[in-house]
């Protein structure tokens, strides 16, 4: 199982990450599509080739082809949106907020899967990319759709653990050179 393979690569000093990875994926109450879409989107957002290589095949077995593509789309569009909206929000000149974005984001309106699932994946990617504006926006959409705080928190727990595993394993790979 790729999850076991990934866990076995985590060094002893990061034992908490190993335990948390097993917990957030292996003991999650999220439905399979929400869980594995979140895992795939955040593995992409983590920018860790090791994490993505290990988790993407497992995600593919749990997701329909449409959901697999939608999770990749969430990671792609949020990579753009998180930079754009975070920058616009951080600038002291708030007039940028009145300007038209002029960026295509059609996939958000028609993701090919349940809208709440796509929003959850977008939210989790935004957690990794640190865009407060996007986090607030997606959290509000999720809450209006009836998604509970526990589910929202589960998404950013997954994001935080996958990000930390990626940072740790990529650092270990460099240190081993």
UniProtKB/TrEMBL annotation:
Entries under SUPFAM superfamilies matching the protein: AhpD-like
Pfam short name (any one): CMD
GO molecular function (one): disulfide oxidoreductase activity
Record-annotated disulphide pairs: 131-134
UniProt-listed Enzyme Commission number(s): 1.11.1.28
Residues forming the catalytic site: 131 (proton donor), 134 (cysteine sulfenic acid (-soh) intermediate)
Domain of life: Bacteria
Top class in the EC scheme: oxidoreductase
BP GO terms, sorted: cell redox homeostasis; response to oxidative stress
InterPro entries: AhpD (IPR004674), AhpD-like (IPR029032), AhpD_core (IPR004675), CMD-like (IPR003779)
Reaction catalysis annotation: N(6)-[(R)-dihydrolipoyl]-L-lysyl-[lipoyl-carrier protein] + a hydroperoxide = N(6)-[(R)-lipoyl]-L-lysyl-[lipoyl-carrier protein] + an alcohol + H2O
Keyword Isomerase: no
Keywords of the record: Antioxidant, Disulfide bond, Oxidoreductase, Peroxidase, Redox-active center
Carboxymuconolactone decarboxylase-like domain residues: 96-176
Keyword S-adenosyl-L-methionine: no
Role description: Antioxidant protein with alkyl hydroperoxidase activity. Required for the reduction of the AhpC active site cysteine residues and for the regeneration of the AhpC enzyme activity.
Family from the record: Belongs to the AhpD family.
HAMAP family: AhpD (MF_01676)
Subunit text: Homotrimer.
UniProt-recorded name of the protein: Alkyl hydroperoxide reductase AhpD
Organism: Streptomyces zinciresistens K42
Top-level taxonomy: Bacteria, Bacillati, Actinomycetota, Actinomycetes, Kitasatosporales
């Amino acid at each position: 199982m790729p999850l076991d393979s990934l866990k076995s690569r985590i060094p002893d000093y990061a034992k908490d990450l190993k335990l948390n990875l097993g917990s957030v994926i292996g003991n999650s109450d999220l439905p399979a599509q929400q869980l594995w879409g979140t895992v795939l989107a955040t593995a992409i957002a983590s920018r860790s080739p090791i994490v993505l290589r290990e988790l993407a095949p497992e995600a593919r077995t749990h997701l329909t082809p449409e959901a697999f593509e939608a999770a990749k789309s969430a990671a792609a569009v949020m990579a753009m949106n998180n930079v754009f909206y975070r920058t616009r929000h951080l600038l002291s000149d708030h007039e940028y907020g009145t300007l038209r974005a002029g960026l295509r984001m059609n996939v958000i309106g028609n993701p090919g899967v349940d809208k709440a699932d796509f929003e959850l994946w977008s939210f989790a990617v935004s957690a990794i990319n640190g865009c407060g504006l996007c986090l607030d926006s997606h959290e509000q959409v999720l809450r209006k759709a009836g998604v509970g705080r526990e589910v929202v928190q589960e998404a950013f727990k997954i994001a935080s653990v996958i990000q930390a595993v990626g940072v740790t394993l990529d650092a270990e790979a460099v240190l081993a050179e």
